[in-house]
């Protein structure tokens, strides 16, 4: 959207797609290194299956996102459902609409589930090893404090755009329960555990601010009618900032 369309034609991968491809290679590698650093030992088969599912889900999401984001240039509006979009309504034959709904399913449901469940599972497993009986190790360096903001913003985007609040909040509750359980044993979070735990807390605050800000938006309310109302940033973009590209 920011870069000139002439550089990345609509029938070719965009700049964002290349970054996403790099993410699909770099992030699984980093997650494997993260697990290696954890004092908790896990069956290798479980770790490998989690990483494989992560890569599959992120790759499915890459293809779906690439097509969906390109549709914006044709007038697609993310704040509307697939069948409510003006450009989709005019498709002939009408069976093509089913194909776009299938694409949306792979992107928003199957891809997200296969991507985020292993991701948060690995984070939680790593978190279980971030406890120490030494109080001095429970202090974060300045660099960690500076990185906490970008980290929390990243998790906020994952939760809101990925529509995975249930997965996130259950992971957070599990982390809180583990902290209280380990405290009874005289163990406290080390600097790595504190960084992850505080990042999740700030993420929850950011989500609350986001929801309160858009609480009375009738159009987004229609798009997200459930009990848990957390609009996607892309839906907000196409509704209120569509004139920027």
Automatic annotation (TrEMBL):
Residue intervals passing through the bilayer: 18-35, 47-64, 115-134, 164-181, 193-215
InterPro entries: CLN6 (IPR029255)
GO biological process: lysosome organization
Gene Ontology CC annotations of this record: endoplasmic reticulum; membrane
UniProtKB keywords: Membrane, Transmembrane, Transmembrane helix
Protein name as catalogued: Ceroid-lipofuscinosis neuronal protein 6
Organism: Charadrius vociferus (Killdeer)
């Amino acid at each position: 959207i920011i870069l000139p369309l002439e550089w990345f034609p609509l029938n070719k991968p965009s700049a964002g797609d290349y970054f996403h491809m790099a993410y699909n290679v770099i992030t699984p590698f980093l997650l494997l290194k993260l697990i290696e650093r954890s004092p908790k030992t896990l069956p290798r088969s479980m770790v490998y299956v989690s990483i494989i599912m992560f890569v599959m889900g992120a790759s499915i999401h890459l293809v779906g996102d690439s097509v969906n984001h390109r549709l914006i240039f044709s007038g697609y509006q993310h704040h509307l459902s697939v069948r409510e979009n003006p450009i989709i309504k005019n498709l002939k034959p009408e069976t093509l609409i089913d194909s776009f709904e299938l694409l949306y399913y792979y992107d928003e449901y199957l891809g997200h589930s296969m991507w985020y469940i292993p991701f948060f599972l690995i984070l939680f497993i790593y978190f279980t090893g971030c406890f120490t009986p030494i109080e001095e190790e429970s202090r974060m360096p300045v660099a960690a404090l500076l990185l906490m903001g970008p980290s929390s913003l990243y998790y906020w985007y994952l939760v809101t755009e990925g529509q995975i609040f249930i997965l996130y909040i259950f992971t957070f509750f599990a982390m809180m329960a583990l902290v209280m359980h380990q405290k009874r044993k005289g163990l406290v979070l080390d600097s790595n555990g504190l960084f992850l735990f505080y990042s999740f807390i700030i993420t929850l605050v950011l989500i609350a601010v986001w929801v309160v800000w858009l609480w009375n938006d009738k159009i987004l309310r229609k798009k997200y009618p459930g009990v848990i109302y957390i609009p996607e940033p892309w839906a907000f973009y196409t509704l209120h900032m569509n004139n920027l590209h």
